[in-house]
Amino acid sequence: MKFVSDKINQILKYQLITLVGIFVILEGFLGYNLYKIINQQNEYEKNNTTEKSIVETEEKITIRRIDGVLTDEANQNLWPVAVMVDNHFDAWPNYGLGEASIVYEVLVEGNFTRFLALYTPKNELKETIIKIGPVRSVRPYFLELAKEYDALLAHSGGSPEALQKIEELAINNLEEIAWWGPDYFWRVYSRLSPHNLFTSSNKLAQAIIDWELGEDIPNYRAWKFNENFETTNIITADNIKISFSENNDYDASYKYNTSTATYLRWQGEEKHLDALINQQIEVNNVIVQFIPEKKILDDEGRIELDLIGSGKALIFRNGQQIQGSWKKRDVETRTVFYDTNNNEIEFKPGNIWIEVVPIGKEVEVE
């Protein structure tokens, strides 16, 4: 009986081994096929995701509304902020002007000039423009420029007429002299007041949110942009000089740089540096907008400038000058520039500096 029992146990042992072997083979076969299926699915999803990503990327690339620069859809039409930037000699050097999409230079009292710089800020993990300014007070004609974009206006006070007009024009008013001022502006003590007030792109972006403008879509009239221009019947213009002041300190000059196809900006006899990056300001488009002669308003020397109506203009891009004109129907409409055939000017994508020059101020072009 023991022999039979041993034989049975041996047979069962061999059968068990055979069954285990069969299970191992089946498991390997099924595992291999399952691996192939999963791998094929992953490859499909990877390829599909790549194709989808390429399509989405192609769909997102568009032109930024304010200056024609290529961007993605999320940054195409952000709400603009207009910052009053000081240009008194005690405010030099300026910060962040080279990063602005559009800059207006306009006379104020004392034959100084002041800048209205437009940005489209967005909250970023790494701030893009860490210092803008110095920020100064506003005048009535700057309000008319800011209103063209319905921009949020960042400033520190203003003339009595300007402060009254802020209410009349329903300007989106980011006033530093208010209880919320420290949230969006700060002062440095290496400079004398009032030439020591600054802001930043992230602070301006937060103001857009706090003023509940972030979810709205700006609908200001966009200018036209084009990389390719006709070059017939256009005058070469390598040097531009605008005489704002009698002592040349505030004269604005631009010299064309063929290697970058931009105009390098000078102020007086010095390179105009953006202290944020310690580089000379480069400009893609320069406009000289001629307006009626200034009027003196009071003993403080405050002036009145007429920006509504029409007049002559010179437009410069790619080292070339275009004779043109400007038209602005009313306070809220955008100033539009035209050539001598009454075709709207197409600007080169990139930043634009507008020099607002009253009749009587000299402009030289070479």
In short:
The chain has five helices and 27 strands.
Q: Any descriptors?
A:
2 domains, globular, alpha+beta, 5 helices, single chain, YerB-like fold, 366 residues, 6-stranded antiparallel sheet, 11-stranded mixed sheet, disordered N terminus
How would the blueprint of this fold be written?
Elements: H1 2-60, E1 62-63, E2 70-71, E3 81-85, E4 102-107, E5 113-119, H2 140-147, E6 152-155, H3 160-168, E7 172-175, H4 181-184, E8 186-187, E9 197-198, H5 201-210, E10 224-225, E11 235-236, E12 239-242, E13 252-257, E14 262-267, E15 270-271, E16 273-274, E17 279-280, E18 282-283, E19 285-291, E20 295-296, E21 303-304, E22 309-317, E23 320-328, E24 336-339, E25 346-347, E26 352-358, E27 363-365
Parallel strand pairs: 3-6, 4-26, 6-7, 10-25, 19-26
Antiparallel strand pairs: 1-2, 3-5, 4-5, 8-9, 11-23, 12-13, 12-27, 13-14, 14-15, 14-18, 16-17, 19-22, 20-21, 22-23, 23-24
